[in-house]
Amino acid sequence: MALIALTGGIASGKSTIARRLAERGAVIVDADQIVRDVQAPGTPVLDAIAETFGAEVIAADGSLDRAALGAKVFGHPEQLARLNAIVHPAVRIESQRRFDEAAADSGAVVVYDVPLLVEARVDDPWDLIVVAHAPLEERRRRLVELRGMPERAAQERIDAQVSDERRLAIADVVIDTSGSLEQTLAQADALWERISTS
């Protein structure tokens, strides 16, 4: 089994690359989905979040109110660190379970789609670290124009992540997503050729 880490800043095009690799046959383990799963109603993680940040971060249906939690942690590094200390250990355990499940197929190429690789898992034994990269200004534009995020909120989300320099410093492969969709997909295809034939 090949274990590939795919990371990138918010709005870097990482999900586009992951989808393309899935089309080619990769098993995608999505860290954001795992975060949602471990924060589901009735989980110890959600209980700990409510205890730490207050009942107002829980929606009427018992689920996590992501906007309310985001308002408390983005732009507040200490609060974000408290949240990460609750969530990251549970994500690590669940992602490892999914890696082990995929390992049953010895020929599998597993791609861990993980925004916070530098922050949480850079020293894990990856076969390859792939960084999706677009300039900060382009990522901010995508958040505002394509996701409808207010400019300040977009900048807070970007600021909450590590710098592009730190992310690029760990890359074995960089996929430049600042061009056309076709150019990004062509780079993802070239990556697939590399990892599926090695």
Give the structural class. alpha/beta
Gyration radius, rounded: 17 Å
Helix content: 55-70%
Instruction: Output the number of helix runs.
Output: 10
Query: What form results from the Cα inertia axes?
Result: globular
Main sheet: strands, sense, barrel: 5 strands, parallel
Number of DSSP strand runs: 5
How far do the termini sit from each other?
11 Å
What does the oligomeric state look like here? single chain
Structure report:
- It is a single chain.
- Strands 2-3-1-4-5 form a 5-stranded parallel β-sheet, sandwiched between helices.
- The protein is of the alpha/beta class and 198 residues long.
- It has helices at residues 14-24, 31-38, 44-53, 66-73, 77-102, 117-120, 136-146, 151-159, 164-169, 181-197; strands spanning 2-8, 27-30, 109-113, 128-133, 173-176.
- It is 56% helix and 13% strand.
Task: Identify the notable features of this structure and list them briefly.
198 residues, alpha/beta, five-stranded parallel β-sheet, 5 strands
SSE topology sketch:
Blueprint (H helix, E strand, L loop, with lengths): L1 E7 L5 H11 L2 E4 H8 L5 H10 L12 H8 L3 H26 L6 E5 L3 H4 L7 E6 L2 H11 L4 H9 L4 H6 L3 E4 L4 H17 L1
Parallel strand pairs: 1-3, 1-4, 2-3, 4-5
Summarize the structure.
The protein has ten helices and five strands; from the N terminus they run E-H-E-H-H-H-H-E-H-E-H-H-H-E-H.
